[in-house]
Write a structure and sequence with these properties.
Strand content: under 5%
Structural class: mainly alpha
Strand order of the largest sheet: 1-2
Distance between the termini: 30 Å
Shape: elongated
CATH class of the largest domain: Mainly Alpha
Number of strands: 2
CATH topology of the largest domain: Multidrug-efflux Transporter Regulator, Chain: A, Domain 2
Largest sheet: 2 strands, antiparallel
């Protein structure tokens, strides 16, 4: 099948398929005489696996590691367990960060009791105050390698 058919069959944009191919997550497709890529059932299966992992917010490196392990079925699965345990930790950290973000947004929202002139907006004043705070005092909002 051509890339458009693969995209349609998997609900994946063509550019995403090409990206996964460039990243080495999806094996290169054979080329027909007209130089069009020719994909097979194995590409659909791999793409479904990648999309499932990405749906669980796994990084490309995590997906790559799982693919390597999946492609070696006789290998011990402790690497998979460790990878998933680490990812669960990243998700838990991100949940803590999102809860802190929610509290911060609610605190900002509480600065505005009733509609007033923009010049007197408590939310904008709060954002200005946070903007001048030193970078070290701001909470970190990103767990490296979790997207």
């Amino acid at each position: 099948m051509k890339i458009g058919a693969l995209a349609e069959a998997t609900g994946t944009p063509v550019e995403t398929i090409r990206f996964y191919e460039r990243e080495g997550l999806l094996p290169p497709a054979a080329r027909a005489d007209n130089n069009y890529r020719q994909y097979e059932a194995r590409h659909i299966e791999r793409l479904a696996f990648i999309r499932q992992c990405r749906g669980l917010d796994m990084t490309l490196d995590e997906v790559r590691a799982l693919i390597r392990l999946r492609d070696a079925p006789a290998t011990d699965c402790t690497g998979i367990d460790a990878l998933l345990d680490a990812h669960i930790g990243h998700v838990a950290q991100r949940i803590r960060e999102l809860r802190a973000l929610e509290r911060e947004l609610k605190d900002l929202r509480a600065r505005c009791g009733e509609p007033d002139a923009v010049a007197a907006c408590g939310i904008l004043r709060g954002l200005d105050e946070r903007g001048v705070a030193s970078p070290a005092s701001r909470p970190r909002r990103h767990v490296p390698g979790t997207h």
